[in-house]
Design brief:
Order of helices and strands of chain B: HEHHEEH
Number of strands of chain B: 3
Largest sheet of chain A: none
Mean pLDDT of chain A: 84
Shape of chain B: elongated
CATH class of chain B: Mainly Alpha
Distance between the termini of chain B: 25 Å
Radius of gyration of chain B: 16 Å
Number of helices of chain A: 8
Distance between the termini of chain A: 20 Å
CATH topology of chain B: Arc Repressor Mutant, subunit A
Strand order of the largest sheet of chain B: 1-3-2
Shape of chain A: elongated
Low-confidence stretches of chain B: none
Radius of gyration of chain A: 25 Å
CATH architecture of chain B: Orthogonal Bundle
Largest sheet of chain B: 3 strands, antiparallel
Oligomer: heterodimer
Largest interface: A-B, 28 and 24 residues
Strand content of chain B: 15-25%
Strand content of chain A: under 5%
Structural class of chain A: mainly alpha
CATH superfamily of chain B: Winged helix-like DNA-binding domain superfamily/Winged helix DNA-binding domain
Order of helices and strands of chain A: HHHHHHHH
């Protein structure tokens, strides 16, 4: 593989990243080849490893950056999880190990996902049921005002609980996705380092 | 090497080298590789992360008709380095007190 091909493949593998990140990485490795000298191109490629390995390390690092900041959000955490899964899939590890890792990651992501989904649905259904109950209460107001009051009261309580539970939901989502992303990053580091030791 | 190297230790090494003098990507990688058994592709993501975290800045300098991008440590990089160094010394002493304890009692 020539240096041009190598950098081209690397660029393709990084295409999920913002342009600025792609260019910075390509510039770095372009300079790296220059510094090593033209005659050492093959050796540099051998030492760097495949473009897949190089790109997966960049993707994984990109994913977890900023997770410790105050400004980190649930959305950032979730996208970090996604990026690391992409990185793991892109990393050139042996198939049996890859399958194992994919199953493990899948199980854990599914577990966290279903927990969050349950929480979310509970929230939404409380709010919705509350609204329905309030509407029903108003519907019978001319027939039996006591029943009406009862339904409106229940409805307000249910929607109130639903709304109150919303901030904790966001917080829990953020924490779970952040720790999930960090755990995946550690797993990723372990896999790629193990691979290096084996060489 | 049988001991696992964490990413904080890698950060500390990079910051320490840059605290001494500015360096460009290739030479920095070689310097770190002299003491740590990492693959050559490990360093770029680390540099990028430290740069994004405002611990490092870069500047370009022409060299033989092309560009060399130098990394320089920032004041917050320096305090991060001192913080990591302190933690390392503390950790090292604790490990030493256990590991070296075995020698005198053979």
């Amino acid at each position: 593989m020539s240096r041009e091909e190598y950098l081209k493949v690397l660029r393709q593998k990084l295409n999920k990243l913002p342009n600025e990140e792609i260019n910075a990485a390509i510039d770095f490795y372009n300079e790296y080849f220059d510094e090593a000298g033209e005659e050492n191109t093959a050796e540099v490629i051998a030492k760097l490893g495949s473009p897949a390995l190089v790109s997966s390390q960049i993707l994984a690092e990109y994913a977890v950056k900023g997770l410790d900041n105050e400004s980190s959000t649930a959305k950032k955490g979730l996208s970090a999880v996604w990026f690391i899964i992409l990185a793991i899939l892109a990393s050139p590890i042996a198939l049996p190990l890859l399958l194992l890792v994919v199953c493990l990651v899948f199980a854990v992501v599914l577990l966290c996902g279903s927990f969050l989904l349950t929480f979310f649905l509970l929230n939404v259904s409380l709010a919705l049921a509350g609204i329905v109950s309030i509407v029903a209460g108003f519907a019978v107001i001319t027939q039996h005002w006591q029943t009406s009051l009862f339904f409106i009261g229940i409805g307000l309580t249910a929607s109130g609980i639903g709304i109150l539970l919303f901030p904790p939901l966001v917080l829990v989502t953020k924490n779970i996705s952040n720790s999930l992303a960090k755990w995946l990053k550690r797993l990723f580091d372990k896999i790629t380092r193990r691979r290096k030791e084996g060489m | 090497m049988s001991f696992q190297l964490g990413s904080s230790l890698l950060d500390a090494c990079v910051l320490a080298i840059l605290a001494k003098e500015d360096a460009y990507g290739y030479s920095l990688t070689q310097q770190v590789r002299e003491v740590m058994d990492i693959s050559e592709s490990t360093l770029y993501p680390v540099l990028r992360r430290l740069q994004k975290g405002d611990y490092l800045t870069t500047y370009d300098q022409p060299f033989q008709g092309r560009n060399r991008r130098y990394y320089r440590i920032t004041p917050s990089g320096r305090s991060k380095y001192e913080e990591l160094l302190e933690e390392w010394i503390d950790y090292k002493q604790k490990i030493d007190s256990v590991l070296l304890g075995g020698i005198n009692h053979e």
